[in-house]
């Protein structure tokens, strides 16, 4: 099986999605005074681990914003599914929906089929986290094939603070060929 993955240091593709109570926007580009973008891809409303991770991430947005990083999240859920999910979410960053299977593939994400109709009604992306720098290139990438493996938020945020304050280069760019 061959899969595509985005490489560290590569340009991040444009990804325009609809949001909950926000205008459509390109999720690869920060808004306002921010110069970096954090894009979190989560499985969707059916995943209690995603709900917990997203709620925990809210406690870190002030620190991320303080170092110039805007935060957004997206899933393959429909608008109705996202609206239902908000009853269990307590987040302070914009949420977007409608990530297509082709978009999931273009981001190099793992994709799963639901185990039952009770889980969800569409293939969904497994977790992904992308940090896009001011040049629009991928500074940090974390892609998982299941919801149990995600970056520890304290380690991630303190690492990003260090990267930003020390002009730390993009890692993982050694080419194999």
Structure description:
With 177 residues, the chain is of the alpha+beta class. It has one domain: 3-Layer(aba) Sandwich (Glutaredoxin). The protein has a seven-stranded mixed sheet with strand order 2-1-5-4-3-8-9. Strand 8 and strand 9 form a beta hairpin. The radius of gyration is 16 Å and the shape is globular.
Give the SSE map.
Blueprint: E1 16-19, E2 25-26, E3 36-41, H1 48-58, H2 61-66, E4 69-74, H3 79-85, E5 95-97, H4 101-106, E6 111-112, E7 124-125, E8 128-132, E9 138-143, H5 153-166
Parallel strand pairs: 3-4, 4-5
Antiparallel strand pairs: 1-2, 1-5, 3-8, 6-7, 8-9
Q: TL;DR?
A:
The protein is α+β, with helices and mostly antiparallel strands. It has 5 helices and 9 strands; from the N terminus they run E-E-E-H-H-E-H-E-H-E-E-E-E-H. It has helices spanning 48-58, 61-66, 79-85, 101-106, 153-166, and strands at residues 16-19, 25-26, 36-41, 69-74, 95-97, 111-112, 124-125, 128-132, 138-143.
């Amino acid at each position: 099986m061959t899969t595509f993955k985005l490489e560290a240091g590569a340009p991040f593709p444009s990804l325009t999605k609809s949001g909950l109570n926000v205008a459509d926007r390109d999720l690869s580009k920060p808004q306002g005074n921010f110069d970096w973008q954090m894009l979190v891809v989560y499985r969707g409303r059916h995943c209690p681990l995603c709900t917990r991770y997203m709620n925990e991430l809210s406690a870190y947005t002030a620190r991320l914003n303080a170092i110039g990083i805007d935060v957004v999240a997206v899933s393959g859920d429909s608008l109705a599914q996202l609206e239902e999910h908000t009853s269990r979410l307590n987040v302070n960053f914009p949420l977007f929906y409608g990530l297509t299977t082709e978009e999931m593939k273009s981001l190099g994400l793992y994709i799963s089929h639901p185990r039952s109709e009770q889980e969800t009604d569409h293939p969904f992306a497994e977790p992904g986290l992308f940090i896009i720098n001011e040049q629009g290139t991928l500074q940090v990438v974390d892609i998982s094939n299941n919801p149990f493996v995600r970056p520890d938020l304290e380690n991630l945020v303190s690492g990003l603070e260090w990267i930003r304050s020390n002009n730390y280069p993009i890692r993982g760019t050694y080419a194999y060929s």
